[in-house]
Amino acid sequence: TALVLATPFEIARGMLTIILTRDALVTDYFELAGFGAAFFNAGLVMGLGIFLIRRLKIPFTGFTMAVLFINAGFALFGKNPVNVLPMLFGTWLYARFHNAGMNRYVYTALFGSCLAPMVTELVYLLPFGFWNNLLCAVAVGIFMGFVLPPLSVHTASMHMGYNLFNMGFAGGLLAFVMVCILQPFRQQRFYLELRAASLACGRFVCIFYDNFPLRTVSQSGGYQTSFYPDETSWPGRG
Questions:
Q1: Which terminus, N or C, of the chain has the lesser number of Cβ atoms within 10 Å?
Q2: Which of 5, 67, 3 is nearest to 30 (CA)?
């Protein structure tokens, strides 16, 4: 489709524009780089997902189709093959840290790359110079990819299955914290706003901690999960 809508030169020029342009929501790649480049970018992002899944020998299921097409959709307004790489690498590091295979976390990595536009945005948002900003952006992308797997486990415990898109919820919580931290840089009032950002992050941690499942030992010696200290006393709870 991309080659029908644009010439190879136009696609190459559009891809360069996509990669080098800020990706704040919503950055419409159709308007920014043209239909050909936007569809080509979506194809590259989907192709990267297909490559990982095939490389890890994961069978294609309905879940696979969901993660591939949601990545292709996001690649039309923020994601590109460059800004997703740090997050994928961070998840790979998490798998290696726990001596597990990447096939266990590949869906988490692909769904979690919804935060990839933040990598590009940091390059232009931070005040440290281009190359320092680039290093910081890559480091933050790796950090987010490393943090999302354990965070998604805890968010699943928080909503108890009532959220059908668990990675979106986990990514939203992480994005909330990142926005609080980055707000001072955007408003150029660093020292004044950093205190407010710290307070907001502290409140988030308190809320998140309060909703962590509590692991307690039941009378039978097994483990049970509860969200509040008195939840085990509710009717029907062991």
A1: C
A2: 5
Supply 135's token pair. 């290093």
CA 139 to chain centroid: 14
Q: What is the mean pLDDT of each run of 10 residues along the chain (238 residues)?
A: 84 91 82 90 93 91 89 89 93 91 89 88 86 92 90 76 72 82 63 49 50 41 39 36
What is the Cβ-side half-sphere exposure of residue 3, based on CA atoms within 13 angstroms? 0
Compute CA distances 72 → 48, 65, 166, 215, whole Å. Answer: 10, 11, 19, 39
Residue 45: name the closest of 29, 59, 56, 24 by CA: 29
> Would you give the DSSP letter of residue 34?
-
The amino acid at 197: A
Tokens of 95: 């798998």
